[in-house]
Write a structure and sequence with these properties.
Length: about 725
């Protein structure tokens, strides 16, 4: 066996090769604890008549040695190529590698001859056996067997190739059948399409025939009309044309006349407004001087004078002066009532009404003159021009942009305000998705649980407004339908006092019931925080706490002054926020505030409240008693008359004023307030349970106790909201 595991036969029988040179190669040896096959390199050592085995051919020291003296060889394994060497000491199982090749047989025979040679313990006799006829016969037999195996393998290969060819043909036949089916289906579909096209061609032919008939009839009609019109007298046609031209000339003349009349009316209105404002200013100054004059007369009257004719005469003169001052006061009051009969285009009074005590308080703190809105034509003209330019550039299709935000903060012109408000409301409520919702709700809300409260609040809605001053005003009936529809649409809110004023202002600006309904939904459901108008008024209370935080942060001096005087601003600002300043601010300030409120949201209320406090901080710091502060806060919004200055403070001087800061403070106070309300509800339930137990023990007061319990249960929600608000 050579180094590759193969046999090298001797060149001639008379000169056998050395066993040490040829009897070497790899054999598999079974051994170890697991009796696994391990490949070892075997070398026949002629001097020792033994087999040495190594791990690799390069190893120097053998792993072991098998002595062939007195060794026997058997081949009893089921698997070919396995033989056993039996020595007196042990039995070694070996396996020839690559038993599937003809070379393995030669390996096997060489080892067999080697073992047979070892039985005689003669190397030369072993070499004699190498060249005997038996070996040749065995080799010939092995060669014949290999040839037969080769023939059988060739036949098997041919059969295999024939089988593969049959399978390919079968697969190709199946694919051809599938393609045939697909072609048949495609042919059927195309036939169907052809039938449909033929049908459409027939229909189009029929339509074309009908159209041809219609064209023929129209042509005949036109020909008849042409014949008839040719019979008309040309003189009458000329007369009609001349009359038409005369009417057009008259229309142009009336338009020009209307334009000049409007300009004159506008000029006269400005002059009249200026004179009215001047009269109002003079009245206010006269009121202040009259108060000072009366105070001086009373001080002189209280001075002790000497007894005598001189003293009596002086007292009589002072008394006559006081009587004359009282008569003058009544005359001024009547004149003031006459001046107040002036309204703006929305029905609000142009001149604010002040009580005598309010005027005296303002005179005490040296408040500026109580002018209402001045003639701001010079200021509003550039604003109107900017709005007209913007609307023409966007072609009426508004979209959110910094330019639109800046314009809205400066105020929307009255003739564009309904259009812009409707766009904001549609954007917030997605009104176009259900345009018939208001009509459906209105048909279902003829009566409801809130109708009684709504009827009670309607006469108290915008009493100073000209459109709502009469109980039989159509605006009140429209407002009632809007509030009934809203309370039916929002059962969780129903109706809350304050919604009537919000809806009334929307109705004055928008003019339509449906637009007002959607505007009210936008304010309550989208702009204001949740639970703002629910019975508990949690959202409104939280906003008052947030306002106090901002007041102490941005106006620290004013906040500390109010704390020292024991004045809580939420007792006034609560109603400001609840009604969104309706009937709180003058109309020329209220409407620009609402422009920004609808577009930017609830944060605008904080801005304008703090702006009013900042503008009036010097006057507030002059008041040192709680009574004077309460009286001044009651009229404070009416004293803010410069809308431009107020907007500048609200949007410029109070920055930064981020929406995130408002949300974070609101969430903090909401969590704390909810805990307090839960604790208050728990104490209330405990009180009611104890009261019911106590009353159950008093049998003689059972009827009276039951009546009181029923009254308490009916008013539980109102009591709870009132206590929470406090």
């Amino acid at each position: 066996v050579d180094g590759a595991g193969s046999q090298t036969m001797p060149s001639s029988p008379t000169q056998p090769p050395s066993l040490a040179q040829h009897l070497r190669g790899y054999l598999l040896k079974r051994g170890g604890t697991l009796k696994a096959w391990k490949q070892r390199w075997f070398v026949f050592v002629e001097e020792k008549n033994a087999l040495d085995y190594f791990r690799t051919p390069r190893d120097v020291m053998p792993l072991g040695q098998v002595c062939l003296n007195h060794a026997s060889f058997t081949c009893e394994g089921v698997e070919p190529g396995i033989f056993h060497l039996h020595t007196p000491e042990r039995t070694i199982t070996l396996k020839v590698t690559h038993t599937d090749t003809p070379r393995t047989v030669s390996h096997y025979l060489c080892v067999s001859q080697l073992l047979n040679a070892t039985k005689t313990k003669s190397s030369h006799s072993f070499l004699g056996l190498w060249s005997c006829q038996d070996l040749v016969a065995i080799l010939q037999k092995a060669l014949q067997q290999c040839q037969s195996e080769k023939q059988s393998c060739r036949l098997n290969q041919q059969n295999y190739n024939q089988t593969e060819e049959d399978q390919d043909l079968t697969t190709h036949l199946e694919q051809t059948q599938v393609q045939l089916e697909e072609l048949k289906n495609s042919l059927n579909q195309k036939d169907q399409v052809i039938q449909d096209l033929k049908k459409e061609v027939r229909e189009l032919s029929e339509k074309n025939h009908v159209k041809q008939q219609v064209i023929q009839k129209l042509s005949s009609c036109i020909s008849r009309w042409t014949e008839q019109s040719s019979d008309v007298d040309s003189q009458s046609v000329q007369t009609l044309i001349k009359q038409n031209q005369d009417l057009q000339d008259d229309l142009k003349a009336f338009k020009n006349q209307n334009y000049f009349l409007n300009s004159e009316i506008h000029h006269l209105s400005g002059l009249w407004r200026t004179s009215t404002e001047g009269q109002r200013v003079l009245m206010n100054k006269a009121s202040v001087q009259r108060g000072q004059h009366l105070r001086l007369l009373r001080e002189l009257q209280e001075v002790s004078l000497r007894e005598g004719a001189q003293s009596q005469s002086l007292r009589r003169i002072l008394q006559d002066a006081l009587n004359q001052a009282n008569r003058s006061e009544l005359t001024l009051h009547k004149l003031e009532q006459y001046i107040l009969q002036d309204w703006d285009q929305y029905g609000f009074p142009l001149v604010q009404d002040f009580e005598v005590e309010d005027i005296q308080l303002l005179a005490k703190i040296h408040s500026p003159d109580l002018r209402t809105q001045q003639n701001q034509d010079a200021i509003e003209r550039p604003l109107v021009a900017r709005w007209e330019q913007y609307m023409s550039s966007c072609r009426g299709d508004l979209s959110d942009s910094p330019e639109l935000k800046s314009l809205i903060r400066t105020g929307i012109p009255p003739h564009l305000r309904p259009q812009v408000w409707n766009w904001i409301i549609r954007t917030r409520t997605q009104r176009d998705q259900d345009p018939l919702q208001y009509q459906q709700v209105l048909s279902q809300s003829r009566s409801g649980p809130w109708s009684r409260q709504i009827d009670l609040d309607l006469p108290r809605t915008l009493c100073t407004n000209h459109n709502f001053s009469s109980p039989s005003s159509p605006a009140l009936q429209q407002l009632r339908r809007i509030l009934m529809a809203f309370s039916w649409e929002n059962p969780s809110i129903g109706y809350c006092q304050g919604l009537n004023r919000i809806a009334a202002l929307l109705l004055l600006v928008l003019g339509s019931e449906e637009d007002t309904f959607w505007g009210l939904k936008a304010v309550v459901e989208n702009i204001m925080p949740p639970d703002y108008y629910t019975p508990s008024l949690v959202g409104s209370q939280v906003d008052q706490l947030v306002l106090k935080d901002f007041l102490s942060e941005k106006l620290a001096r004013l906040s500390s002054h109010l704390d020292r005087c024991g004045v809580d601003v939420s007792s006034f600002t609560f109603s400001w926020f609840l009604v969104v300043f309706v009937e709180v601010l003058p109309s020329h300030i209220l409407l620009p505030l609402w422009d920004a409120f609808l577009y930017e949201g609830n944060k605008v209320l904080f801005r304008f409240s703090l702006a009013m406090f900042k503008l009036k901080e010097p006057e507030i710091l002059q008041l040192s008693t709680g009574l004077e502060l309460h009286q001044y806060f009651r009229i404070l919004p009416k004293t803010v008359l410069d809308q431009r200055r107020l907007s500048a403070v609200a949007f410029d001087e109070l920055n930064p004023f981020s929406r995130r800061a408002v949300r974070s403070r609101r969430a903090l106070h909401l969590e704390r307030l909810q805990r307090e309300l839960c604790e208050l509800q728990r104490q209330r339930n405990l009180f009611l349970s104890q009261r019911s137990i106590h009353k159950s023990t008093e049998e003689e007061e059972g009827a009276e106790g039951a009546a009181e319990e029923e009254v308490l249960d009916n008013n539980s929600e109102d009591d709870f909201a009132t206590v929470s608000c406090i």
